Amino acid sequence: MDVMVILLGHRMESALKVQSILTANSNIIKTRLGINRELSRDDNASGFIFLELCGSEEQLKSMCDALNQLEDVKAECIKMELPGCKCEA
Q: How far is CA 87 from CA 1, 46, 52, 54, in A?
């Protein structure tokens, strides 16, 4: 199972750019969960996005690299598997 965790430092400034990248890669996103740390429209409000992905290693790396090029955004891909269990996309 491939998972991506994205941290947005200044959510209000980053959200549109992040959304554009996620939309361009929507074909590899199975599940998306967004959490706002502060329930405000303050420019300094941060947020997290958790994604379950089902693409090739190349696609995952390309999306992660695009997100990490944005100012105040950090994305990390994580591969998780249980021993003896092959998680299918």
A: 6, 31, 12, 10
Q: What is the mean pLDDT of each run of 10 residues along the chain (89 residues)?
A: 91 86 97 78 76 94 97 93 67
pTM assigned to the model: 0.83
Which residues is 31 bridged to in the sheet?
Answer: 52
Asked if the structure places residue 72 within a domain, the reply is: yes
CATH of the domain at 62: 3.30.70.1150
Distance (Å, rounded) from C-alpha 62 to C-alpha 37?
27
